[in-house]
Specification:
Chain lengths: ~550, ~325
């Protein structure tokens, strides 16, 4: 039995803190040691802090939106203020929270641990990415302080270039800069996954989490440059009057829509694939069962990342693209359902005949599956030409992408945060509070967003603060749900921070999960592994139940 | 008179047969969604309870059919949903082919109002009156940013682009008053760029037309403008070798492009963009000279020209 195998099969109980080499958190305490660190684990926590701050900004904006929509006549804020609020919400949540959320935090922390590496391929580049991210973000914050921007996160031209009277340029610069951070992170991950896998860690021994991050990184690398160019062109048109998109200057506004969605549809998979990776780790761990159809899931991941590049036109069905093009984009969008279905059915099959523990991360994972399925299927509604012709630009779209991005990605983020929190911090959080907030979030989410499907079907356009009175009751319901949702988010912020000091100490592997990251102590030492791991086992090597299992035997 | 005044509506009104077909599509797709998701939801809930850790259950797994199972749940839902792709495509394509007898209304979107002009020259702001049972084609353009003309009761919308015409047609056969909205964010007062669609009996519509103040018919206004902008000087005989415009619409132009409204618009505003390469630049650009309103009048006039009459002149 090789060392690594022993380490894996029987993770040595972590020695008591005394006499143990200090972990990555306690190795040094100076501010400098944090802000100039090249340790992927510390950088991950820097990202966690930054995106949490942005989440709070975006969430406050969301609260103001829901407050405004309680009344139909738009009396709470002026029209311009309302437009700025939803723009802040969209820009911050999409570009500064969702896109970096899982990859930059969990991906950063876990990819080296999962593949048995000491760090990412380019540790200093990794730190640089964080500074670029924060630098870009500061432009956006500055924008908020000097007066805000009202274009929506989609920056459609020529409104954004010629007609808006707000501070579009700082917002654009911020988003462009943050794009470079994504590109560098993607590059780092791709090289790491190619070059730094431990001996024996073949491609098909990698956890699905690593597969999804590999696919996400490819999208970062291939799609981000397109949005960067599109936004630079916007900037040039706005700042110097160089006509690219405004027909009055000889440009073409539909070109911007193409460039924007060529990136932004793949970007939705940047947001969603890492979440699928998280769920693919949580579900087997809490079912104590090998993931069903590992290879199919790995291929589906790459399939999704490929198809995602050819469906952008489904955002443009009603802007006069040719009928033939619309039909092609529609059927390609339906094809996305295939790899998505693979994942959902495989997770379900993994739960079947497992040994299920309904702890907090698993509750989040189950919530995720439900909401992701609804979000994905309503995506197919939108991909259906005659339906999109009705609900495009309405609250139906808003509900669709919130089911995917909040119901999906956000739940995966929280599930992953609870799952790996012991690994990140060495502490356990109070389980009862974890379960309560998972339920609050699930209920609050559905009360907030389900009515929006109905609103969209009834014909309420999005980005309206002054809306027809017949929509008021559903809007009130939605706002009421948002307060439950807000409570659900507040709890983890409080008890997770509380647990840093007062939480129970975590063992190396509190969930009995499989995977290299659980073979290191919690929190891991700065160099991750005491010895180079050698991998001679399959991923998700949870034992099959013995043939005569009646459930009495307990594997922990 | 307004569409709805209560705070809750749960069923959108439908003003056309196409809207009802769209509803059938939506609700059938919803039914399929239930068929696909209810087993997953029940399955997850049931497995989670049945196979709770510590519970006695038969956990023996039979391996061997995994590949068939995988292929099954990839292909079956895909094929089922494809039915809806085809259904949705057919309704959509129908919406793209206006019947020949459609009555044409010109629409201009601008921050933050809609302007509609009927063939007889009756213009209205934000509201639109149409006769029931008569196909109506709306030809629209924006003067500034992108807008979107959206009538939920018809289940259709179309972006209104600057610099290019887009079209939308419908046959509203249920008399009533419905909302008409802007569906593409266009700035400060986006949410008040709204009005009402009045679907009237043909008799009421005729009365409304007679009642509303109207200037000239669109085509005759176009003929007048064609003279006053000096187009006629070149295009109606004269010394310059300007091409004849009669019968041009719907043909393939000398530069190989298909002549539609947007083609005529660019030929007038920016002749460089449609001129056959190598030809001397004779026609002056009218960009910044002719307004969007005058443009659709000129275009309507050009389209009304009869090649036979022209030849005999
Ligand atoms: C899997 C993750 C997905 C995410 C994160 C996502 C996210 C989004 C977002 C953000 C928008 C709205 C963009 C905007 O107008 O501001 C959107 C719209 C849309 N999504 Fe998704 N989506 C996902 C999956 C799907 C799937 C699987 C389909 C269909 C196969 C789909 C079809 C559509 C369509 C057609 C629209 C355009 C609706 C319209 O504006 O008319 N989406 N999605
Ligand atoms: Cu998309
Ligand atoms: Cu608008």
């Amino acid at each position: 039995m090789s060392t690594s195998e022993r380490a894996f099969r029987d993770p040595a109980p972590a020695p008591a803190t005394i006499g143990r080499p200090p972990d990555y958190l306690h190795e040094s305490h100076t501010l400098r040691s944090w802000f100039l660190t090249t340790d992927h684990k510390r950088i991950a926590l820097l990202y966690l802090a930054a995106i949490t701050a942005f989440f709070v900004v975006g969430a406050i904006a969301a609260g103001l939106i829901r407050l405004s929509l309680v009344v139909p006549n738009g009396e709470i804020f002026t029209n311009d203020t309302y437009n700025k609020i939803f723009t802040v919400h969209g820009v911050v949540m999409v570009w500064f929270f969702l896109i970096p959320s899982i990859p930059a935090t969990f991906g950063n922390f876990l990819i080296p641990l999962m593949i048995g590496a000491r760090d990412l391929a380019f540790p200093r580049l990794n730190l640089l990415s964080w500074y670029i991210f924060v630098g870009g973000a500061l432009f956006t914050l500055a924008d908020l302080i000097i007066g805000g921007v009202d274009t929506g996160w989609t920056f459609y031209a020529p409104f954004s270039t010629t007609f808006s009277n707000t501070y579009v340029i700082p917002a654009l610069i911020g988003v462009i800069i943050v794009g470079f951070s994504s590109i560098l992170t993607g590059l780092n991950f791709v090289v790491t996954i190619h070059a730094m896998r431990a001996p024996g860690m073949t491609w098909f021994r990698m956890p699905i989490f690593v597969w999804t991050h590999y696919a996400t990184s490819l999208i970062f690398l291939l799609a981000t440059p397109v949005i960067t160019i599109a936004l630079i062109l916007l900037l040039m048109e706005r700042a110097f009057g160089i006509g690219v998109f405004d027909p009055a200057l000889g440009g073409d506004p539909v070109l911007f829509e193409h460039l924007f969605w060529f990136y932004s549809h793949p970007a939705v998979y940047i947001m969603v694939l890492p979440g699928m990776g998280v769920i693919s780790e949580i579900v087997p761990a809490f079912a104590q069962k090998r993931i069903f159809g590992y290879r199919f899931i790995a291929y589906a991941t790459i399939g999704l990342a490929s198809i995602t590049f050819v469906v952008w036109g489904h955002h443009m069905f009603v802007n006069g693209i040719g009928t033939g093009a619309a039909v092609v984009f529609s059927v390609l969008s339906f094809a996305v359902a295939v790899p998505s279905a693979v994942k959902v059915y495989n997770w379900t099959a993994t739960i079947y005949k497992g040994r299920i523990r309904l702890q907090t991360p698993m509750l989040y994972a189950m919530g995720y599956i439900g909401l992701f399925v609804l979000g994905g299927l309503t995506g197919l509604f939108l991909a259906t030409l005659a339906i999109d012709e009705h609900v495009h630009g309405t609250y139906f779209v808003v509900a669709h992408f919130h089911y995917i991005m909040v119901g999906g990605t956000m739940l995966a983020f929280l599930g992953g945060l609870h799952f790996w929190w012991p690994k990140f911090t060495g502490r356990l959080y109070p389980e009862a509070w974890g379960r309560i907030s998972a339920f609050l979030i699930f209920i609050g989410f559905n009360v907030t967003f389900f009515p929006q499907f109905l609103l969209g079907y009834l014909g309420m356009p999005r980005r309206y603060h002054d809306y027809p009175p017949e929509f008021q009751l559903l809007n009130i319901l939605s706002s009421a749900g948002a307060t439950i949702l807000a409570a659900g988010y507040l709890f983890p912020m409080v008890y997770l921070i509380w647990s840093l000091w007062f939480g129970e100490r975590a063992s190396a592997n509190p969930w009995g999960a499989r995977g290299l990251e659980w073979t290191t102590p919690s929190p891991p030492p700065a160099h991750n592994f005491a010895r180079q791991p050698i991998v001679d086992f399959e991923p998700y090597a949870y034992p099959d139940p013995p043939a005569d299992d009646d459930g009495a035997a307990h594997v922990g | 008179m307004n569409p709805q005044q209560q705070a809750l509506s749960l069923w959108p009104s439908a003003a056309s047969a196409a809207a009802t077909s769209a509803d059938h599509l939506i609700w059938s797709f919803t039914a399929l969604t239930l068929v696909l998701v209810v087993p997953i939801f029940l399955g997850i809930a049931w497995f989670a309870l049945r196979y709770r850790d510590g519970k006695t259950a038969n956990r023996r797994l039979r391996h061997g059919h995994d590949r068939m199972i995988e292929l099954g749940w990839m292909i079956i839902p895909f094929v089922l949903t494809l039915i809806f792709f085809v259904w949705g495509m057919r309704l959509f394509v129908d919406q793209k082919l206006p019947p020949a007898n459609a009555m044409r209304i010109e629409a201009i979107g601008r921050q933050w109002m809609w302007k509609f002009e009927h063939p007889g020259g009756q213009a209205e702001i934000n509201d639109l009156h149409v006769p029931a049972g008569q196909p109506v084609l709306i030809n629209m353009i924006s003067q500034d940013v992108i807008h979107g003309l959206y009538v939920p009761a018809l289940r259709i919308q179309m972006e209104t682009l600057p610099g290019r015409y887009t079209q939308l047609w419908f046959n509203a056969d249920r008399v009533g008053t419905y909302r008409l909205l802007c569906s593409e964010f266009c700035g400060t007062d986006h949410s008040t760029m709204v009005g009402l669609l009045y679907v009237m009996t043909p008799a009421d519509y005729a009365a409304w037309l007679a009642r509303s103040h109207h200037g000239e018919r669109i085509v005759s206004a176009g003929r007048r403008l064609f003279a006053s902008y000096g187009c006629a000087g070149c295009h109606d005989g004269g010394t310059v070798a300007a091409p004849a415009l009669a019968g041009l619409y719907g043909q393939v132009a000398a530069n190989g492009a298909y002549v539609d409204d947007t083609y005529l618009r660019s030929a007038i505003l920016d002749p460089d963009s449609t001129r056959v390469p190598g030809q001397p630049a004779v026609m002056p650009p009218f960009k910044g000279v002719v307004s969007e309103d005058d443009l659709f009048r000129l275009i309507a006039y050009i389209k009304s020209l009869d090649p036979a009459a022209e030849a005999s002149r």
